[in-house]
Write a structure and sequence with these properties.
Length: 289
């Protein structure tokens, strides 16, 4: 990289000296300088186009991962992994863009030192770093998605368990409640740091305890205990509605946290590359290409 940065300005300068010659002003100087700028701009345009094309797949994969994180119905990890790998593969193209932009900048400033400097839309090593970050995000995104699925499936398990109790099938009810409790414990242990989630955790724990008491009372044939457990479930019902809202808020908040950072930066990276392509297109137009 250092060698490229040193050689490009030197080559451009030597080219301009050859155009200028040893004598005074030459009518061909301006034309030669414009031709050199046009060549460098065309090379930069080609490099930018190749990079822009290569960034399409990781951008789509990152968006797919983000959409699945937001929806909470599929694991986003494979898409984030694909996005990270594609960014890593595109790094040589980013290096090519950097070299081409430096060459173009040197040609323009050699022709006119007052020209505003040009920069590359991608920093050295930026694609590799971003790709690694997105790839590393995949396991935690999958973990969050799995917890979300368990949380959102909790209500179904509880309802099915109560149906099994009503159908005088305590064995099935116990199995369903055991699964619901395992899911509940996993969510509680995850310590996701979501402000509204404790509301759901506390209320769902109360519902589990009341459902457990109900199934045991029914299995034992204890009518009084069964009625007490049923009454407890009814008392909790209004809180459960509020807890479900708290869960939805929490899951949306958690998905938002997952979507911040690396996935959003892919879209910003594409925007910068396209903006630089527009800038180079203007240069090509100005030099008549």
């Amino acid at each position: 990289m250092i060698f490229t940065r040193v050689v490009v300005p030197v080559v451009v300068a030597v080219g301009l000296v050859a155009v200028l010659g040893a004598g005074g002003p030459d009518p061909g100087v301006a034309l030669g300088a414009q031709r050199l700028i046009a060549e460098r701009a065309a090379e930069a345009d080609d490099a930018l186009r190749a990079l822009d094309d290569a960034l399409g797949p990781p951008l789509q994969a990152a968006r797919d991962g983000a959409a699945r994180t937001a929806a909470g119905t599929e694991l986003p990890g494979p898409f984030l992994t694909d996005a990270g790998a594609a960014l890593l593969r595109a790094e040589p193209l980013a290096d090519r863009v950097g070299a081409a932009m430096r060459a173009l900048d040197a040609a323009r400033r050699a022709a006119d030192p007052a020209m505003a400097p040009l920069g590359s839309p991608v920093g050295d090593g930026e694609l590799g770093t971003l790709g690694a970050e997105i790839g590393a995000l995949a396991p935690s995104a999958d973990g969050f998605a799995q917890l979300r699925m368990r949380a959102e499936g909790f209500g179904t398990l509880l309802a099915d368990a109560l149906d099994a109790i009503a159908a005088s099938d305590p064995a099935t009810a116990r199995d369903l409640l055991a699964q619901a409790r395992a899911d509940h414990e996993a969510i509680e242990a995850a310590e996701l740091g979501l402000d509204a989630l404790p509301v759901w955790i506390d209320t769902s724990a109360e519902l589990l305890d009341a459902a457990d008491a109900l199934v045991e009372a029914v299995a034992d044939g204890d009518a009084a205990a069964a009625q007490a457990a049923s009454d407890a479930i009814e008392r909790i019902r209004p809180d459960a509605v509020f807890a479900d809202r708290a869960l939805r808020i929490s899951m949306s908040e958690g998905a938002g946290v997952m979507l911040e950072g690396p996935p959003a930066r892919v879209a910003e990276l594409v925007r910068r590359v396209q903006a630089t392509r527009d800038e180079v297109a203007l240069i090509l137009h100005a030099v008549g290409r």
